[in-house]
Every structure is written in C-alpha cells, then in structure tokens.
Amino acid sequence: MTEPNAGDAAPAPEAARASQPADAAKTANPSAGAAPAEATPEATPAVDVAALQQEVAEHKDRLLRTLAEMENLRRRTEREVADARTYGISGFARDLLGVADNLRRALDAVAAEKRDALPAPVLAFVEGVELTERELLKVFERNGVRRFDPKGEKFDPNVHQAMFEVPDPSQPTGTVVQVVQAGFMIGERVLRPAMVGVSKGGPKTAPASAPAGSPAAADAAATSAGNGPAANGAGTTGDKPGA
C-alpha cells in the first residue's frame, strides 16, 4: 500500500474554525441568500361615485352658506358702525336741547316790533342771544341734528305729541295750529317729538269733485238746487195723452 505523502496532510485547525461562522449564519438565516420575492399588488376597493358626489355637494353647500353668513356679517357690521357714528351722540344732543329751548324762549320774550325801542345795550344783548342760538343750531346740523316746526302740518303721532285741542273751524280737523315746543330729529330718528296743539271741529277734507258734464255732476247740481227728480216729481208720472 502507498503511504500518504507529507504534502497531503489534514487541513489546519485555523481554516476549519474560519469556515464555521459562515456555515452557522447560513443555518440561522436560510433565506438570506435567496432572491427577494416580488410584492403582490393589493386588490383595489370599489369606489362609490355617488357617495363622493354627495360629499362634494355637502362641502360646497357648507362653503356657500359660510360665505353668505360672512357677507351678512360684513353688512351688519357696516350698518352698526354707521348707526353708531350717526346716533352715538343722541344722549349728549338730548341734554343740549334744553339750552336751545331756553335761548328760543328768551328771544320769544322780546317782540320783534319792539326791538327798535330797546336801549342799545339791551338790543346788543338780544342780538348776542340770536347769534348764540344760530351757532348752536349749526353745530347740531353738522352732527345730524335738526330742529323742525310743524305748525300748519297734519298731525303725525310718529313725530308730534298732542298736548291739547284747539276749537278752530277755520282749520281742518287734525291740523297743528300751535307749537308749544319744537321737535328735533337726529338722522332718520326722532330725538324729541314736537309738543303741539291740534285743531278740532274744522271742516273735513272735501271729497274729489266729479268731472264737469258727467251724470254724477248733473245730479249733484240738481240736488243742491232743489230741482232733483224727487223734488218736483218730474219723470215719476208721465203726461197722459189727451189729458
């Protein structure tokens, strides 16, 4: 038999130990060397088009409602700001009405026809009061407050306050014939109603007259003259032939 050569000796212990970790890794993770598997596409769920359209319509409706509410809020805010600018001084202006009333009473106490007979100092004082009143009314007007005198107008309970009735046949009933205290407006609102006396017992408003030449006008004229058909009996019994 042939004896083994010295060059065919067993592998060195170091080479055996170096191959052991690689074999252990392959044993622990057998799929490490395999090619990665392709991902399986998932099944696409069915899309409910009608439900999506309904959801879009609901969102659109909410958006339109929100826009409309914002527009209404903007307009309401602008109106409130304008009202605050116009009517914010109502309390202060109402307190100054007494000053205007006193100035007017002082001027009414001096008759216009007697002013020429007044001494110069008194006349200067009266003119000063007139100037003060005019300036106060100008300040009122610059701030939207104006005085009104309704004498001769028809009584309006919205802007007038009736204090008494005056028997006056020369004026239609319900006419303002006397102003006790002038009224004031601020913007479109009544700051203070005018205190007035109203006529009573006068003629009522005449009805519209019928056109000339019409049957109604002819009947009215005949009735007023006492020559109507009922007055003289004309037309009630005709003349009999041969009578």
Automatic annotation (TrEMBL):
Region entry Disordered, spans: 1-45, 199-243
Compositionally biased tracts (Low complexity): 201-243
Record's GO cellular component terms: cytoplasm
Coiled-coil region: 49-87
Source domain of life: Bacteria
Biological process, per Gene Ontology: protein folding
Localization annotation: Cytoplasm
Chief localization: cytoplasm
Keywords associated with the record: Chaperone, Coiled coil, Cytoplasm, Stress response
GO molecular function, one term: protein homodimerization activity
Entry keyword DNA repair: no
Family to which this protein belongs: Belongs to the GrpE family.
Task of the protein: Participates actively in the response to hyperosmotic and heat shock by preventing the aggregation of stress-denatured proteins, in association with DnaK and GrpE. It is the nucleotide exchange factor for DnaK and may function as a thermosensor. Unfolded proteins bind initially to DnaJ; upon interaction with the DnaJ-bound protein, DnaK hydrolyzes its bound ATP, resulting in the formation of a stable complex. GrpE releases ADP from DnaK; ATP binding to DnaK triggers the release of the substrate protein, thus completing the reaction cycle.
Subunit structure: Homodimer.
Protein name (record): Protein GrpE
